[in-house]
Fold these 2 entries.
Entry 1:
Amino acid sequence: MVLMAPLNRLLLAAPLLLALVLGGCASEDGGNGVQSEKLNTIRSRGKLLCGVDGKLPGFSFVESDGRYSGLDVDICKAVAAAVVDDPGKIEYRNLNSSERFAALASGEIDLLSRNTTETLSRDSAGGNGLSFAPTTFFDGQGVMVPVASGVKSLKDLAGKPICVESGTTTELNLADRMREIKAAYTPLKFQTGDQTYTAYLGGRCVAVTSDRSQLAAKRTSFPDPKAHELLPEVLSKEPLTPATVNADPAWADAVRWTIFSLFQAEELGITKANIAAKLAEAKAKPNLADLRRFLGVEGDFGKQLGLPPDFVVKAVSAVGNYGEIFERNVGATSKLKLERGLNRQWSEGGLIYSPPFR
Amino acid sequence: MTLSLPQRLKRELAATPLDGAVSAVLIVAITAAAIGFLGWAFGRAQWLVIQANGTLLAVGRYPVEQQWRLWLLVGLLAAATGLGWGLLRGRRWPFNDRLASVLLVALGLWAPAALGLSLPLQVRWWAITALLLGLRWAFGRWGAAGLARLHPRVRRLLPLGFPLLYLIGLWLIAGGLGLGSVAPSEWGGLLLTLLMASLAMLLSFPLGVLLALGRRSELPLLRWGSVLYIEFIRGAPLITLLFLGQNILGFLLPGGLAPDRVWRAAAVLTLFCAAYLAEAVRSGLAAVPRGQVEAARSLGLSVPQTLGAVVLPQALRTALPTMVGQFISLLQDTTLLSLIGLLDLLGMARSVMANPAYLGKNAEVYLTLAVLFWCCCAALGLGSRALERRLDTTRPA
């Protein structure tokens, strides 16, 4: 037909065009001491591409004024502050669990900060090939029961119905643990989270199980949140950890140590409010060598990472130290009211531990 | 014979004792459900979540200082609507028009107040409503006379105003050419939903027609290419194709070169919709009697002329209801964009519901979405039925 002639020409031209586009792309090299293509890309782009969940209470969601907020989001902000000197220069990508690794591998995002559990197969080169940063939230599977039920531990649930989402690791973990303590129970399986909690609230089961942070978040939406409590047992380890791709170790290190600096700041008692004072103090007193190195007044930690010398100051000024991030988003001052638990500093019996800044 | 109201009620609700019983049960059930619903909606429901997040649901994370552009766009659309409506109806104000006007005025007065908008925004809302109805009235009164006075050549160019308006709309939304640009990742809510749906509808229509023609073509390569394309697309769920579009392109093109995720999603929606439209158009083509083509050819019309003047107008008219059905389902399919992480109406709503300040307000948010979607789909349905009536050659106009 008549229309076909131009169409044919277009079809012929398409591969040519593609080849041109592909050929035109050569990587640039910054004049930085550290060779990292990713760092250079982010700097020349002027903003960080951060993958988040986007609909997880306390971790990442959109505030009424359109700003992203949450614990995972604050990690993005800290890294953006350290790398491009502005916690606002971030483009967020909402990712679901099935596409998050592909998005990272294909370079759609620079940093994945999306409640991702660190596991062997996700870390290994033969698996997803991710490079995990320090864990920013130690979660674990928990069990919630009505206070009135009198259930105080997993053992008390023997012979009782438990609501669980089907097809999740949650379901398998529950089965494993109940078999371990030789307690028979009746699993009531549901397709979605909403159905599960509706059944629980409707009294169809005595307990409901999911990640502890999820249970706490859901509980805030119950008609009477105080009537429900979490059992002390933790059924599984869920270290929720930001990740980058394996291929760029320098970039992975920059992310790692930016997050460590948030841990270290809490340990040293440096907060968003007092960082300016601490910096002035460090500048004034040459004998505070540790503090001076940490805040970049002396030494070249920043340069070694390919970051500005004062990247710690920038990160902490943007979002505060780890403790502040935790409290603001998921801790006692937030609606989620989660205990610090495992997420306390190592000096207080938790797992938050920064290697020395030396 | 006309019946009085009690007589009619008796005949329609309780002609026999069994009918009466069924009616009674149904009336009680419906009343109970309605009371329950209204009690919830006006008593227990907390609409603060909608008030506080109204802007997010409407336009997503579109920068506040640039939102005047969207108001301007809404104003332009209202003006175009008023203009077309006025020209269509002339001086007549049939019952439907009066009802629609009353509803519009009520919406213009109620919605901004209910959403708790600031006074300047309320005034904008009123102005847009007034503009729409004012132009409807003015063009109904003088529009036809004004048109007649225009040069015929100018008059023929007038329909081009609509594609032009669409391009202006895209420009206002995306920026560039003198306006500050707003990246697609900042579009969201109803804006993104409508933009995606309308873009896919507009682009998939010509593509679908071409595919339908290709499938009936006598050139084997063209025919088999079209068949393969249509069957491949129809054989894969939309969500799979959306994931493919999001993930594959990133690997094929090095970082930064792949078009934005929003455009990729729009392309997938378009390609998807085109395959279904092609089948709708093909059914329309099949319904055109063979004699029509032969008559046109024997009158000396060329193949394109035959297609353009004889076959396609009849085929598209036949296929119109199916195509509109396809468009309506396309509009609803845009909610799948939330699964690939775009902040369309549903995606935005899910992010809003994750705000700890509004946890557990799912019912309020979902109900609002349902109403919004219903309005959009109802508008599409109304428009298509009006179009069908105008195109119906079997009825006197």
Note: Residues 1-32 of chain A have pLDDT under 50 and may be disordered.
Entry 2:
Amino acid sequence: MDVKAKKKFYQREGFRVRLILFLVMVIVSLIIVIPYVWMLSNSFKPTKETLVDASHLLPKNPTLDGYRKVLFDSPFFSWLRNSLIITVSDTLIILFTSTILGYLFSRFEFRGRRFLFMMLLFTMMVPAQVTMITKFILIDRIGLYDNLLALIIPAVVSAFGVYLCKQYCDEIPRELLESARIDGAGNFQIYFHIVIPQIRPAIGSLAIFTFLEIWNDYLNPLLYLSSTGKQTLPLALSFFSSQHQTDLSATMAASALIMIPTSIVFIVFQKQFIKGIAMTGMKG
Amino acid sequence: MKRDKHRFLLLVLVPCFSAVFIFLVLPIIGTFLISFMEYNPLRNENTFVGLSNYARMLQDRSFFKAMGNTLLFTFCAVAINIVLALAMATAISQFESNRTRSFFRMMVFLPCIAPMVASAVVWLRSLYEPRGGMFNALRRAFGLEGISWVGDARYLMISVIIFTLWADIGYNVILFSAGIDGIPGDLYDSAKLDGAGRWQLFRNITLPLLGRTTTFILLMTLTSYFQMFAQFQIFAPKEGPQQSGLVMTGYIYKQAFVVKEMGYAAAISMALFVVILIVSAVQQRLGRVDWEY
């Protein structure tokens, strides 16, 4: 076969393979979506209807009762506020420390650099169960138990974030930083005006990862927050669902409401997200 | 110039690494020390008891049950996760239009947006519901009897693994996709001209070039699955039938914060730590992880 014939062969054979793969992925997508559709459908059903037939897809008498119950009969807005305070502050702090440490480990020579960096990476492998006992005692002693700060202060540095940002900073052309230095820019100025814009994709994907991780975290709030008004949404949901075993529509409404903020963050950052990960350490 | 550099280093490193030291390094040492004590946070005096916590652990059936369940869950879920994620990422990468590719990547990532507890509650009430649930409806459609997906010790772990894959695989699909996108396209073009088939392309180009990506993903997934907890709380709130849903995090949590035997809980968590270190050492030896430093 000459080159042209080969190309044609690949195109024809490729079309069939792609068609099959396409159908497979459509089925996969359906499997992924079905539980959400079911969740939304039941969140709009009156409680009675969910008891009779929960699998029926369209609510016969759609109602907002479930949502009303969640929003007004439970401290939903306190939970939402707590989740937002913790997640937003943690994400911002982690973005700052990750980028500046990434820049520092990428561009500065100093004694102990390798040791500190390796120590940081090592902490990624330490499971939360190992640290949680002493961390709990520590937080209890400094009086932060049942305080939102207990979830913010210990989470200020993310090893993954530093690693990710360092990978990006390694790619910044040396001349760019040097010419700024010759122009008399200090290290913080270089960090703000040159490093940050250069590694923007990394910041986007790190923002999404961190936001999702902290918003969805279950173990830490369970450990450090005890009173009902101090809880975060995922934690509150598990109580909510065990208390309202029979009230399916309210439980499903709560589940749906929890997913709104992360969906917004995801939609806003999604382009940067894919691009950001594509250029990280994932270079094959 | 030099002073400026020193000031910058100190201003950044001192606060950041104080936090790392206090909240990440110190607790490891602390837990290690507490594991040799009889420690109750409510008491003022806590006695040193030597190795007795470890001796007790070796005779504790629940400990072995929890360890067994955790290992079973982690190995099965991680193995299936990696294979499926790689398969899906490869499948998605075959589509020519950029739009199609990003659409499917987004779809697969969708469950990762939701908190695991929320998704688990939805699954519990929809797919795993024993009477009207979708899985049992499906089984009945094939003439099989409905089963108790989370109420039966034989099926609980399988149910949790299926759910976890659904809820969490999106991360790895995205990471593998990124790795595949990073492979230069002309490698494939020249192999195609040599007459290589699709499978050969995957076997001889994609797979070997994804080596480092795979090692990284494997390590991250292993450590995170060893710690899985939230979905077990929903599917097996009381450790499940015959403790079939008891995992290490749940057991350590119970010992430390419900029974309040922190010394014993610390000993158990050290045992888990050793297991994780051994597993990741073996994995690194096999996969030769390279942090590109």
Note: The radius of gyration of chain A is 25 Å.
